[in-house]
Model the fold of this input.
Amino acid sequence: MTDPLLVLGVLAAVFVGFNIGGSSTGVAWGPSVGAKIINKTLAATVMTFFVFLGGWTIGRNVIETLGGELVPQSAFSLEASIVVLAFIGLGMLAANVYGVPVSTSMTAVGSIAGFGLATGDLDMAVLGGIVVWWILAPITGFWCGGVIGRYLYPYLDRRFSLDQSEGPLVDYDWRGPIPLPHLGPGTTPKEFASTMIVFAIACYMSFSAGASNVANAVAPLVGGGAVSVSAGVFLATAAIGLGAFTIARRTMESVGNDLTALPLLAATIVMVVAASITTIASWLGVPISLAMSTVMTIVGLGWGRATRTATAKEIVTGEAETAISVDAITSETPEEPSRIGEETPEDMQAVDQLFDPDAVVRFVSFWIIGPGMATLLSYGAFAIGNRLGVL
Done:
């Protein structure tokens, strides 16, 4: 006979994975959906496949950290695992309702840390290492974006910039027994190749999301011995896929159209940097925020592009006469990019606005509210439960 508690634990993990799918799919595929490279249904399908691939390979390291190092495996009773998962899901649900991609890893760590604090089982050294990465990751994203924006972006833009044509990217010839694909009307070989590169990088970002986030849905159950690691990866992937096909449609719209108006080249750079930071951290077993790295890379890229109007010496000494704005990344690049310090503020006039400030404030607020709520609720529940002897 199936243990009712195990069924409840699986349902709690599905609830968490469902919310992860809603959040992470928006971060990974929002730029591509916003640029009309792919529709939301196909994005959800590809997301699910690469989440499984990331979780099955690198994601096992993060499961080990959350399921046995932050808090000992012996502390994860089935009842405790259910409560922890419930608070992870609740911490994320509010953000997903508003279409905001909350940090799933920070929410999961907060819920488990609250449990460990209440029971006295929290390994502060492991928590400290995770927090250090939380500080380093957005800083690294900002400076990687800044260096690329200041020193490389104008040259990359002249060489690889892409203006999307009207109509479908690919058409099919249906006259034969097998439909033969060919470039759509107005599609150039350069546009097709560049679009495929953007698509491949979005797949890479989905892989990194799986590597980081599969653990958030099932680590407590794996740590408590309720399910194996492999079964946990399958369970988390199914739940994340469910979220990708449903509530992620709103977060893809939010990321793709509300937060940024990035050119495809800029979106590609951002995805490569953020996914690489997340993949490296996951390989080391550190649960990390893909969303935070993504946004800070965007900020750094725009900042670096804008600072080309001044030399490094002028910036350090305060002699620069230009206002630095992240909007500059959408500025048009001249045929021959000027050297650093020779561009004028007029060169930085943005074609579109990079950020909607209200959207950024909303995103950052929920990154704080989600994990904070999960930590406080988890700590309070286990502190009271321990006193009453029910947890």
Remarks:
- The chain has 13 helices and two strands.
